[in-house]
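Entry 14. Structure prediction run on the chain below.
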Amino acid sequence: MGACHIQYALLLSLLGFLVPCSDMLTCNKGIMVKFGIGFTKTAVEWKSFENNIGAPKEICQETLLLIDVGNKSLILGSKGCSKPGEKKIKNVQVFSAGPGIVAASYAHFCDTELCNNATSTRVLLDSLSLAASSDPGTLQCPVCLQFQGFCTHNSNFVFCPKGTDCYTSQLTLRGGK
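Output returned:
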């Protein structure tokens, strides 16, 4: 960011101005947690109303996690500063493309002012290649997606596509600020 002349820096800091002589970056900051229906088909607005000045050498990040199971969807989002040493990347990873269960993530690490500026989940949806819905079978499986809750034996049942089976799985997320 260039060197500052010390006398000007001292004068400006005495006057209460922040002097841009460091490698600290300003990033958008915020979290999003939405529980609903159809988040694989319709983009969800993703706003951040705060900024955060990172520590030296930190970079900006934005991350989305989408889980869609039957008639329920969960989207988790995070924007803020990330630890030094992270590489600049933009990545979408699909863990399950359906039909039935969709699980995918979007991660963007960048190193310019307020570069973590996605305004909706469209950044994830545009990169998804979801499996086409196949012919419905006759097998019914329980489907449950809960946020801060537990699934019970009284879950909803859905008809599974031909050639698929039922299975049980649990995903627990922790962390964040």
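The longest strand covers residues 26-36.
Filed with the rest of this week's runs.
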